[in-house]
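Risk register update: the risk of archive-format incompatibility is retired. Evidence:
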Amino acid sequence: MPSFQKIDLDDVDLQLLRALQEDARLSTKELAKRVHKSSTATYERIKRMEAAGVIAGYRAEVPPAALGKELVVFVAVRLKEHRDTILEAFQSDLRGLYEVEEWYHITGPHDFMLKVAMPSMDAYHRFLNKKLAALPNISTVQSLIVLHRGK
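Archived output:
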């Protein structure tokens, strides 16, 4: 998990973060115009947030369908045991599964929530049976198929 230094963020910082989340390619000049600050002040705020790890990086957002991954599934996993060594081993196994785009260790009736992107239901079925179910210590798996994505 990325680390960051706790810093105080004011309304201008939050406006900058929102603008960068919408379009990380905005120029400092455009960002400054949006928050009614000078380009220098805006640049310094952004650099401060980058240095503190509040801005952890800039990425290209690629929709899974653009890579032929039409099917997105959230997979809720419950483990049989919860010792630290078991949890660490499971998390290590997840890192080795390229189909798993994200995973979260969660509370509630399940222990982990995985986001999996696949080209088809057949491909997901193979992943589920040959890879995920083959991992040790899994008690139950529940698949939640994404019908539509939005924000």
